[in-house]
Amino acid sequence: MTRKQAGFTLIELMIVVAIIGILAAIAIPQYQNYVARSEAASALATIRSVQTDAEDIMVRGLEPIVGDVAADAANGDNQRSLGIAADASGAGTISVDSYDVGGVIEIIFTFDDGGVSPQVQGENVTLARTEEGVWSCTTSIDTNFAPGDCAQE
């Protein structure tokens, strides 16, 4: 009398588990790298979204700022909001630095120290305008994760 095999042997199950473990060991770091690259690209997209507003505000001779501006014309307030809050992104903060009336401005996205990929924590993406009106992007993020059109700081 012959007996039919009723299931998988222990060796077969161990081989399947080993194969899944090898695939996971390869896939998880690649996924983490993908997430870091997407967070960096998202930061650049966030500050690029206010680039046109910044240009318009500066052409009018006003100072672009992040956040709300109290409309107080009596005090001669020349600040205008870029239409974005400093904490608009859960990944970091947005700020304006190095503004001058000559048209030079830096819009900076700084990643938080937590809640984002370790590869971008504490790093920044900067969108800068020169007096000639040329916009450029620089970043402190490692080149493996930085947006493609951003130069290293």
TrEMBL record:
The keyword Transmembrane applies. Keywords: Fimbrium, Membrane, Methylation, Transmembrane, Transmembrane helix. PROSITE patterns: PROKAR_NTER_METHYL. The chain crosses the membrane at residues 6-28. This is Pilin. It holds the Pfam family N_methyl. The keyword Plastid does not apply. Gene3D superfamilies: Glycoprotein, Type 4 Pilin. Belongs to the N-Me-Phe pilin family.
